[in-house]
Amino acid sequence: MITCGATAYAAAPHQSYAMADTVALGEVNVTVRPPERTRVGMDGAVTFGSASLAHAPRVLGEADALRFMQMMPGVTVASDYSAGAAIDGMGYSQNEYRLNGIPVHFPYHFGGIYSVFSPRLYDMVKVGKSIHGAGMSDVAGGTVGLSSSVARRSRLEAEVNAGMTASSAYVSLPVGSCVSVAASGRVSYIDAIYSGMLDDGHMQAGYGFNDADAVVAIKLSQGDRLTASFHHNADRVEYTDHDFSLVTGLRWRNLLGGIEWRHEAERFDAVNMVYYTGFENTLALDMQSVRLKAPTSIREIGARGVFGFSEVAKTLDVSAGYGLRHYIATPQRIDLTGFGPGRSKPADMVNATSAKLWGEAVYSPRWRWRLTAGAEVTGYAGMDGYRAFDVDPRISATFRWRKGNVTAHFGRYHQHLHQVGFSEMGMSSNFKLPAGSRAPVQQSLNTVVAASHRFSPWLAVSVDAYYKQVSNEPEYLGAVLDIISPGYRSEDYVKVAHGYSSGFNILARILTGKVEAMASYGYCHSRRRFASGQSFPATYALDHTATASATWHIGRGWSVSGVMNLASGRPYTPVTAIYFIGERLMMEYGPRNSAQLPVYHRLDLSADYEFHSGGHWPLTHKVNLSVMNVYGRRNVEMRTFTVDVETGRYNRRDISSLYRLLPSLSYTISF
Predict the structure, then answer these.
(1) Is residue 193 part of a domain?
(2) pTM tops 0.85
């Protein structure tokens, strides 16, 4: 028999609450601090939730968590097409995204327009940058965790959003006193509305997607809760390049689900979960009589657990845990017809397994001091009989004062699953590859200092600096045309690089009754080199990035907001010569990443009008008008070349973003 008591769940460590009002007796001076919607923790992690997204500038009518994340210092995106973000000098593939604790192997819809996450259902986001505690991640880069507070929702809630590019719906309801259920869904029709604007004379783009989520939370007893999560999304995109009569298609989808059991007692907490997550993608090329298909996939079955013991001694807390991950990967294989002898080969599956045990102790001898020490022990069995055993120590020291803190950290991290491919912007055509003898386990040694200080009730400033020594980072050295080469094997084009990333970030936040604003600047110097050869700039690392955003609550339901982005141009490898040998097109390249695209900048504006109606069921209405790339900047996203077959000369062609002066109108109703 299941009984549900009056359960009081402890607040998650990453939740942010407003500081209590302070009263000074005598003159009775009352100081009120506005709610802090975005919080920077002692480890430099950035936490924000639905309140931040609700008041953030919208793009195409959507308040998207990962787009809001891009305004954080140290989080950079190479272009508007990028499906991923670089965090503190590490690559897109070195981040891990989790949905209620379940890994998501490709978290974006096309080009980063939207993430696959429902902002209303998953209403808390924590971005871990360069400081990871033991058991926190299995990657060398950053972590992005999204979670849902469905278990704490005690009444019926619903929302419908209708926009010019996509529409979505959300509902959450309690079922009796023990069960809470929430679901969301979204469908896009961006190419149906914007098909004319997605044609620049050289290229025509078509696109559509849908996603669906469900979360069920069951209170088993006063201290026990069971949560089941499900997600699915499917995307399709098609490019038509008129210059080459080339049609490129991509289709991909995520499917994942998991069950978590959480037990909470006075001095002991435990979380155990099992999950399945899978991602598959198919790249198709059609050029006159040539047909090509290149499918890839990654499937993962995993389990993890966390056990926390508070006040083991008066000033000591201890935690420990385990993790088990089994991968089934299908690297890129080619099915080709119409170009020489037809080639079709069944895809080879690669199996790999990692197992981890970890422990961590937190010692606080005084309120001002906090010392954290821990370690992970990991065993790995991968492809080609490859084996690895690693011990990763991590230690942090924090000094706190009334209005701020400073933390110093040293840690060693490993990553067993790579992502490689010819897309330098992290598109879905890139594929997952478990570590093996050709591409061993990645490693990062991080030294980090992070500090924050609140100068007034309305102004807070955070800074951090890092230096990372990176080993065995895989680089894909092939190009798009290489996949039609005889005997093509994607693994043969993978080569590992070593190097370092260093930099610093600054974030200033202002929050008053009328204005919410953030400004950030990040500097990054990231170099890589192969075993033989000179060093080169990392593809995804931008030397300078700056963002500024502000929302002004005018009154009577009106608010306006804007976001300005400025960044160094993305490095790329230039083509120095193009020629034919027989009927085969050949290219010669200059030094790797020795050229740089022009500086990137863009301004987005948004206006909201909110009003209320209804009696017994009060309704909230919001109308949003947003304009993306207000002054129509033609940011260069890619640099390619065309060949004049009559003269043999080639010409450079710059491909700019499709998002030029892109307006959108949306309407949201909720209760």
Answers:
(1) yes
(2) yes
